[in-house]
Structures are given as structure tokens and as C-alpha cells.
Design brief:
Order of helices and strands: HHHEEHEHHHEHEEEHEHEEEH
Number of helices: 11
Helix content: 40-55%
Strand content: 15-25%
Radius of gyration: 22 Å
Distance between the termini: 41 Å
Largest sheet: 9 strands, mixed
Structural class: alpha/beta
Shape: globular
Number of strands: 11
């Protein structure tokens, strides 16, 4: 019998291109991923990857198995959901904590996805910033899953009993009003933007501290005209001509016409997006949600 967990690992390896990247996405070690693939090869009686010192290449057998694996896994998830619904099992509820931009630009993609809708799982959603969401994991188990981000080495902390799974990185981009005359994706130095009007975070927040240090390191001394911790508001104010801003790529999916995105090599920063869930917990519905979340984030960032 083929283990469905190994099929899910196969899909992750093909999607991410290596055992190490798949392991990071799944929350396993690279060795565990390699062992699962080896077990799947033994069970199926076929070679799934050509391996060398630097890379792995999926065989035709692996590609064929992957095409069928998605449907098999979805059918298993639907079977388990149907059995649980027949028993009026309260576990068909998923209590989710999520930060605003992920809720705005990625969560709707998951909710509309056929693989999710056919399971009939009820979502209960709390939209809040990471610190508040993490508190929901601490206090009496109010949440099953928390989606959070961390900027650089900012002071975000979570209970040691939580399991962390990396979802993806959301790079920050410098945006300026179109009226300033820059060409889209023009390469400029941080110094060229110094002393210009800027919209920045409220001072004292962990993210603001990281950004202030980054700006200081590259000699950027902004003339602050607004403080905003709401990235959507910052984008709209930039579009209206108020000033430049540093915002995550995710918030630019529906970029207004009055905004120009610049390439500033001196400014390199990203939000690392993670899922947090209690250690030892997990289910088919959570695994599917996180898989669709990773795909949805990649799709949103490739606009």
C-alpha cells in the first residue's frame, strides 16, 4: 500500500525542486523527505528521481504519479470529511488567525478553490496583526492555526509548544508617486531618495526599528510626512502623491495607477510568512489549507 503522506511529499519535492526546499515547506528534515521518497520508490517499484551531487530531476514515472496524486489526496480528504460530517464531528471547523494583507489577497483564493470547497469545512477567521494572533494560540486554544509574519529579526515570539512551518517570503518594495517621473522598475540608489517625503511606520514598533536601521545603514534619511502601519493606506497615499513608502509585494497586487515601483538594490528586506500550530496537532484539512496557502501566496506574488 502506498502511504498518502509520501504522495504529499512527492508533490512538494516536485513543486519546490529539491528535498531541502520541500522539507522546509513541510516542516520536516531533508533526511526525512529523502527517506519518504525512497519508501515510495520501494512501494511503487519505480525510480522517481535521478539524483546527483547537486540536484534531483523527477523521472517520467514521478511526473505521472504526481498528476494522479493530487486527485487521490483530494479524494481521501473528501472521504475523511464526509465521514466526519456523518458523525456531526465538530472538527470540521477550522479556527484561523491571519494577518490583514494575507486575508485580503490570498485567503479568498483558498476559499474559492475546488479542492477546499468540496470538503465543506467551516472557516472561523480572526484577522489581526501577528502579536495578537499568537495570543489567541496561547489563551485557551482559541485558534487551530495562526498565520504570522516576521520582518528581519524583529521581536516576534511564540510559545515553544508551537510548531512553525515556513510558507514563503514577501519582499518589500519601494514605491513612489507616478508624478515624481520615475520609470517603472527603474534602478535607483537609496541616496537618490534621501530627503524626499516618506510615509513610514509609527516609531517604536518592531518592524519600524528594523526599517529605520536598514535606512540608516544605506544612508537614507527620509523626510517623514506621514506615519502609517496600514500598508493599503500607505499605497493609496503614495498614489495620491503624498510620498514614497516601503511596502510588501503582496499589497501591490492591485496597485493603483498613480504608484510606481522602483528597484532599490540597497534596500533588501522581506516578511517571512509562517504558520504556527500546536505541536502534535495536524489534520488533512490543515495540511490542505497550508498547501493551498503556499500556492496562493506564490500566485499572488507573481502578478
Amino acid at each position: 500500500m502506498i502511504n498518502p503522506v509520501h504522495l504529499r511529499t512527492l508533490l512538494a519535492v516536485i513543486r519546490h525542486g529539491s528535498f531541502a526546499s520541500a522539507a522546509q515547506h513541510l516542516g520536516y528534515t531533508a533526511s526525512a523527505v529523502s527517506q519518504q521518497i525512497a519508501a515510495l520508490e520501494r512501494d511503487a517499484g519505480v525510480e522517481l528521481f535521478h539524483r546527483n551531487a547537486r540536484s534531483i530531476v523527477p523521472t517520467d514515472a514521478a511526473q505521472a504519479m504526481a498528476r494522479h496524486a493530487s486527485k487521490v489526496l483530494t479524494d481521501i480528504e473528501a472521504l475523511m470529511a464526509a465521514a466526519s460530517r456523518a458523525q456531526d464531528d465538530s472538527r470540521q471547523e477550522l479556527r484561523l488567525g491571519i494577518f490583514p494583507s494575507l486575508a485580503t489577497y490570498v485567503l479568498p483564493r483558498i476559499m474559492r478553490h475546488p479542492r477546499w470547497t468540496r470538503l465543506g469545512i467551516e472557516l472561523k477567521v480572526s484577522v489581526a496583526e501577528p502579536a495578537q494572533t499568537i495570543q489567541g494560540l496561547r489563551d485557551g486554544g482559541e485558534l487551530d492555526l495562526a498565520l504570522v509574519y516576521q520582518v528581519g529579526q524583529s521581536g516576534l515570539a511564540w510559545p515553544h509548544t508551537m510548531r512553525r512551518q515556513w510558507i514563503g517570503d514577501d519582499d518589500f518594495r519601494v514605491i513612489v508617486p507616478a508624478s515624481w517621473g520615475f520609470s517603472p522598475e527603474a534602478t535607483v540608489s537609496a541616496g537618490q531618495l534621501s530627503d524626499m517625503p516618506w510615509i513610514i511606520h509609527h516609531p517604536g514598533t518592531p518592524d519600524a526599528v528594523v526599517i529605520e536601521r536598514l535606512f540608516a545603514a544605506c544612508g537614507l534619511h527620509p523626510r517623514v510626512v506621514a506615519h502609517s502601519d496600514d500598508f493599503t493606506a500607505s499605497v493609496e497615499m503614495t498614489a495620491a502623491g503624498l510620498g514614497a513608502a516601503l511596502v510588501p509585494e503582496l499589497t501591490l497586487e492591485k496597485k493603483p495607477a498613480g504608484v510606481v515601483v522602483l528597484n532599490v538594490p540597497d534596500i533588501r528586506l522581506a516578511r517571512n510568512v509562517f504558520a504556527l500550530l500546536p505541536s502534535g496537532s495536524g489534520s488533512a484539512r490543515v495540511d490542505l489549507f497550508l498547501e493551498l496557502l503556499g500556492d496562493g501566496l506564490t500566485e499572488a506574488l507573481s502578478h
